[in-house]
Each structure stands twice: as structure tokens, then as C-alpha cells.
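User: Fold this; C-alpha cells only.

Assistant: Input:
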Amino acid sequence: MKKTILRVLMYLGVYLLLQVAFSSILSIGATIYYAATGSVDASQLSSPDTMQQLASIGWVLGLSSLLSNIAAIAVMLYLHWADFSLGRIGKPAAAGVMLTATLIGITQAVPTGYLTEVLQAEDILSDVFSGMMNNVWGILALCVGAPLGEELLFRGAIQRELHKRVRPWIAIGITALLFALIHGNPVQMVAGFLMGCVLGWLYWRTGSVWPGIAMHFANNTLSTVVASIYGQEAKTVDIFGQGWQLYALVAALTVATIALLWLFCRRTR
């Protein structure tokens, strides 16, 4: 068990180290660029405040996140920590399985979002996501880089390692908890844990990260589209109104999500 814990910590450590490295490199590059173009006083190049301000620029965050996920994927594949195989999904059933997982990602979004609002989970990174959504690098990072990199790390590497030592539900729960905590944002932690449990179950059923990638992609893309239309601060009550209509929608989508999970179970027997 000790070896498993060390390997899990190594996977997380490498992933976080790559994120910090790319963020630092691009922040320094942005600082030098803006200083050269007169946007920042050259004497402030070593100022932590200046570095932090430039690091919060949307394209820097987006590009650093995208590149760090690409690098993490390359490392995990090269070292055989995880893979992109179909696992136990037969090729004839692959399209149906992926479509079902994608629909799960869509239907669960409103009930999960409403729950985080009921629990009054704080969103401390709303400005960060607003900045990322204003440029193509940020959108690619959120909708493509994160689903690929995070699913390969958490389900393909960490959960697979835990399955060797503990019962499936424990492996799924631990992985979901780590997935929630690494986001560092209360509102994402609540949704991340619930979503992480479903993503972990999809992986356990199939032995493949692809259903999780499909669900993760659908969730992030839908969230990005909604935020771009209604704003990052918009809540479900702002979009759908308050009262029985909202409750009916949440209930209907919850039932739809459960039905899709049952269908996924049938497709992956």
C-alpha cells in the first residue's frame, strides 16, 4: 500500500510541477514582452506584484494550462502511467458508450450546479475563468486540455493504481476527492467530487478514460458556453427563473442522468 501511495503522490507531484513550471515560464515571458513594448516599467520586472498581475492575464493562464496538460499527457504516455485505450469497450459499442457519456455530462450540469448554489459554495476563481474564456487558449484549455489531461491523470493513472490495492468504491472515492481538492475552488470542489464519482464509475465500468473524457468535455464546454452567454456569475435561478419551473427542471434532469447511467451500465455489461 505504501508503494501505491507514493506512486499516487508522484503522479500528482509531476502534474502540479508541470503546471507551475509552464505558468512561471509564460508569466516571465509576458512580463518581459510587456516591458519591451512599454506596457510595464522595466524596473518592475522583478516585482512579485507585477508578476502576479501578468500571470492573471487570460491568455497566459489559458496557454500555460493547455501546454502543461499536453506535457503531462506526453509524460504519462511515455512512462506508461496511463493510456488512451478503449479498455473493455468493444468497438461496435464504442459510439453508443461515448454518446451516452456525453449526454450524462450535459444532463448532470444543472442539478450539480443547483446543488452548489443551495450549499452556497463560494466561487473564488470567477475572475480567473472570465479571463480564460475571453481568448482561444483559455477555451481550448478548459474544453480540451483539462478533459484529456485530468482524466488521464486521475482516472487513467491514479484510480488505476488504487484499484490494485483497494475496493472499487474506495478507489473511486479517493480519486474523486483528490480531483475535487486539486481545483482549489470551493464551488468546484463540491461539483468536482460528485462529478469525480461518476467519472470514476465510468472508468471502473469500462477500464477506459474515453467515456470520462467525453463526459468531462461536455460538462466543461456547456459551462463555457453558458458563461459566455449569461456571464461567469450567472446562477441557475438567473437563467431558468425561480419557482416550480426550476425545481421541475432539476428533478427532470436528475431523473434523466440516472436513466443515462442505467443505460451506460447496460451498454458496458
